[in-house]
Amino acid sequence: MDLPRYRVIQWATGNTGQRALREVIRHPSLDLVGVMVYSSAKEGVDAGELCGERPTGVRATTDRKAVLKLEADCCIYMPRATGRGQTRAGLREDDLVEDVVALLGSGTNIVTTCSDLFARGVRLSDANRARVLEACQKGNASVWASGSDPGFITETLPMALLSVQRRVDLIEIEEFGDLSHRPSTHMVMEQMRFGKPLAEFDPDRRKNHLFGEYQPPLSVLADVAGFSIDEWTAEGGVAAAVQDMTIVAGQIKAGTAAAQRIIIHGRVGGVDRIRFTQYGFVAREVEPDWGLQPTGWRIRIHGDAPFDLSMPFPVPLDDLASFVPAFNANGPVNAIPYVCGARPGILTTEDLPHILPRGPRPAAHE
């Protein structure tokens, strides 16, 4: 059976964008028509060279106006936009919305990893959200945001587990991240503050950021589960190393910070109905004992058809970085046909059919 073909733009080629670009080039039903980049060093470079693939004849450009004129079916929009204010790519929310409105208004659908557009765009200002929705109607186009986390772990997988429930009491999601093999000393020892005395450790440093990123998609999950959450809160915590140890990024002394966690609670009448916990650690044996697990996820559904699902990543920590882009990029690439066929608007996973990879895929050894 011949599958429909889709003209696709790759917008931004960072770590995740490069993987998405590679999969578009390999995809049997996607035709790459443009690549938007922010670096002058990438200007004019063939798309295949940017992601380790064969030459495509499509060259990257920093010319935003030229890309917007391509009239593609879908744009994989992946700049480093992480919320309101200045971002690492130099985008502000208003800049992001200018891009999105221009694409949608011209009839180009969007799949994206930008968290600004999660949960039907509730993080956007009212005025900007209204502009995006107006553009969707004007161009009869839609935008869908997802990634691995938030995204797959806060929507796709929990919704599959909810499909066999009639009564749901509590949804628990835990993320475990072992950073002991990360080579970035600044990130591990300074930004994450591992190895610092507990008295100098502020467990709430990342709380507000994480709450802003996860509460909106978790609210979508709560709605799907039938919960009317009346209180969302977040708390931070820190645990100490029980012995001296050496990690890739440096030395960790016994009694200093070796694990941290952020817990987000969604409550109804003071009772947890949604609980999301993110653990970052450089040692699994810590005080207090948090029962830390290998890098990966755990989901527990408490209801009349209970589940307890643990999903450690089945790759060595030293190799994990090469797999992470796939967790973020593959979902948006697979979703392109579904988003192109969907009703106009800012969509969530709930609005789409079950997303499956279409057409032949690379062999297992590739």
UniProtKB/TrEMBL annotation:
InterPro entries, alphabetically? DAP_DH_C, NAD(P)-bd_dom_sf
Classification via CDD domains: nat-AmDH_N_like
**What are the 2,4-diaminopentanoate dehydrogenase C-terminal domain coordinates in residue numbering?**
152-354
Which domain of life does the UniProt lineage start with?
Bacteria
Q: What is this protein called?
A: Dihydrodipicolinate reductase
Q: Which organism is it from?
A: Eiseniibacteriota bacterium
Its ancestry begins with: Bacteria, Candidatus Eiseniibacteriota
